[in-house]
Amino acid sequence: MMRINFKTILLILMVAVASSILTYWGNCTRLLFVNKPEVQLQQKQEQHLVNIEPTYQDIDCNINGGYLISCRKEGDEVYIPFSFIHKYFEIYGKLATYDGVERFEWLHSYSKILSPKSKYDSRGVFMTFENYNVEIRERVKCITGYDGVPMSTQWETQGYYYPTQIAQFGLSHYSKNLTEPEPHRKIIEDAENLKKNWQISQGSTLTRTFDEYKNTYIYEFTTPELSKQGIYLQLNHILSFVIKFDLYIIDNTTITIVLQNREKKDLYYLHYSTIDTVLSTNNNHIYYGIGKRKNTWHRLTRDLIIDLQKGININDNTNKVKKIKLTKLKLKIIKIILIGNGKIDNITLSTSEHIEQFYDSARWFVNNQNKTTGGWSNNVKRKLAIGMNILEPGWYSGMGQGHALSVLSRAYYHSGDDNYLIAAINGLKPFKTLSENGGVLAKFLDKFIWYEEYPTQPASFILNGFIYALIGLYDLKTIAHGYDDANDAGKLFDDGMISLKNMLTLFDTGYRTTYDLRHFTLKIAPNIARWDYHATHINQLLLINTIDDDPIFSLTAERWIGYMNGKRAAHN
Ligand SMILES: *[C@@H]1O[C@H](CO)[C@@H](O)[C@H](O)[C@H]1NC(C)=O
Ligand SMILES: *[C@@H]1O[C@H](CO)[C@@H](O)[C@H](O)[C@H]1NC(C)=O
Ligand SMILES: *[C@@H]1O[C@H](CO)[C@@H](O)[C@H](O)[C@H]1NC(C)=O
Ligand SMILES: *[C@@H]1O[C@H](CO)[C@@H](O)[C@H](O)[C@H]1NC(C)=O
Ligand SMILES: *[C@@H]1O[C@H](CO)[C@@H](O)[C@H](O)[C@H]1NC(C)=O
After folding, report:
1. Would you state the pLDDT for residue 28?
2. Which of 127, 267, 305, 561 has the most crowded Cβ, counting Cβ within 10 A?
3. Residue 121 forms part of a structural domain
4. Is the Cα dihedral 27, 30, 34, 36 positive or negative?
5. How does DSSP classify residue 160?
6. Judgement on whether residues 210 and 280 belong to the same structural domain of the protein
7. Same domain, yes or no, for 367 and 290?
8. Ligand 4, closest atom to CA 299?
9. Residue 344 is part of which domain span?
10. Within 6 Å (CB) of ligand 2, which residues are found?
């Protein structure tokens, strides 16, 4: 949360700075040696007409012989506008007031370092992912109705499953489960007691029966196929907007939740329907396809606010994104409608259902693994850099594989279900297969192994993706301790740590880190890490340092933190 808020502030600040550059420095990029126009002098006089005589003079400042900007001179001191410094050096600043006194705060970096409080625990919170909210990201099209995981539009607008993102979604919910307060939960219908006030339209039936297989009471419903009214329950429910229910599809079925804007009275219909379309919207009707898996029980967990938000921001006809923001404070749930033919149980409304959403992610990894290769494929084209090959759909990511191990290890630990462990162990295969043969393994100078976030030719050696892969291997090695089949995780982790210790300082430029080693493999300019990636590198080293106390990690992290505070490596 901290991080998001901080970034928002900076964004506002950057916009403010940018617009002040436009107004204040509208003409500051005059070419050198243009005579100082007299107009400027006149402007200056007008500006200070009402003020007392200023103690400074305007003075032109010649920037590296390239262009002039206007500065101010006071005695022997020259003052350069911060808006210029901000752009030129990418340094951030803002005015702040303390006890009524204003002061200016200068920041080299916009990111924050969060030092780990204790030794990293593979059963616990993942990194600082309790602060992540993957589903609200703009590059997430929606959470699919079919499997309850995010669908990405980052590199392809139509949408695709991105294992890295699906894992981050799972890990954030797992982490939130451990850090957030207990949710408020209300059971709307569990068929255990007498029938609630369900309204049953003509030709429809709702029957409470005992399900032998599940050993519990459930409701079976049938309505005419095109029934609009169906069977419904009127509600007046506010504040908790995560719905969960168990559904058994007998034939075409739609579960509709009707939301109302409390101020404007507009109605929104969220339809969870046995169709294949992932998401479609028709005015205030939003359809999520839940697929056609008949005659078996499924648990659906839906964050209604996210579903509504993603739905109304997609406009099928024009593809134009209309940005409407509807928060839970503005809404209430007024109806649940059952249409078609199925069975339903355990309709619950909660403030959150983190563990359910975590398991949606974990199940996705079990159900979508290539059993032969052990990989979770990225079915999208990806071009990392000019000079590197295009990755054709189907490629594996060392980071995606590693993240999957982090999810599956936790799912195995939490549930004891072997299926998660089996998938995780199978997921080690791409770590042992060279990139050129469809795996994620690269070698640096034929000596040090590396798990590639993007398995490019030539290799890219992306640092953060590699460390995430290592953390995944560590998670599996720790959780599956004692299982021979999982021994490879330990070996792959140890080999990776040797590379990390030997290669870490290759990413150091003396004032910031590089994102990858393309400057070595492509012989081009280094790809300097954005501050948030630089901070990620440090956060990762601090985590690694809690499980391996080699001083390379603490010393390097300390130096890299210094860069965020304006320090630079000494020169000769
Ligand atoms: C910038 O300079 C041009 C030509 O010197 C002038 O026409 C224009 O009004 C100036 N704009 C501002 C914002 O001062
Ligand atoms: C965390 O998950 C457990 C089930 O493992 C659940 O009982 C608890 O309510 C959840 N807490 C939060 C904050 O999500
Ligand atoms: C279910 O829907 C499909 C597609 O809309 C339709 O072809 C089929 O007839 C429906 N089944 C029943 C039993 O109405
Ligand atoms: C409803 O929830 C209860 C309690 O968790 C569970 O025992 C039962 O199996 C669930 N019903 C279905 C149909 O899954
Ligand atoms: C698994 O991967 C292999 C090798 O890339 C490929 O030939 C096969 O089609 C994949 N299987 C599935 C089910 O995608």
Report:
1. 39
2. 127
3. no
4. positive
5. B
6. yes
7. no
8. 14
9. 185-312+326-351
10. 177, 180, 182-183, 352, 354-355
